[in-house]
Design a protein that fits this description.
By secondary structure, this protein is mostly helical. About 18% of the residues have low confidence.
Length: 147
């Protein structure tokens, strides 16, 4: 009996300490594992769902308009999923376009002469032979980082 009581007490204290250690999210619920409380790296799916939820609104008229705009089946019940899918696709296309534009800018900046290529490598290259210069340039333009 004593042993069971000790085990139960130990398990309870561990679960309480684990619950207190997890930072709460902004909405008061605990953050999910692998996700910070502020969720700066939130997935595109979650951001798309938030946008669709806001677009859908809460009134009967706004919900009906939302279903009419996005719904494709008989009762338009698939509208939310179609909206999220469209938002994610749009975000991916914008990201791809940004990467393509960044690559074009870096290619133009690199130039074609030996001197311009060497200067480009000196500016962006970070490894021993500075062969990673092009990737670092694209990454800097896409992410807006200063390093």
């Amino acid at each position: 009996m004593k042993r069971t009581l000790i085990v139960v007490t130990a398990l309870l204290s561990l679960s309480v300490s684990a619950a207190l250690a997890a930072p709460p999210a902004e909405n008061g619920k605990p953050a999910s594992p692998g996700q910070s409380a502020n969720a700066p790296g939130q997935s595109a799916d979650k951001n798309a769902a938030k946008k669709c939820k806001a677009e859908r609104g809460t009134t009967e008229q706004s919900i009906a308009a939302f279903k009419e705009k996005y719904g494709t089946n008989k009762n338009k019940a698939n509208a939310f999923g179609k909206c999220v899918s469209a938002q994610v696709k749009k975000a991916e296309e914008q990201e791809a376009a940004a990467e393509e534009n960044a690559a074009k800018k870096c290619k133009a900046e690199r130039g074609t002469t030996e001197q311009s290529i060497a200067a480009f490598k000196d500016k962006y290259g970070t490894n021993a032979n500075k062969a990673n210069a092009f990737g670092k340039c694209v990454s800097k333009l896409v992410n807006g980082s200063t390093s």
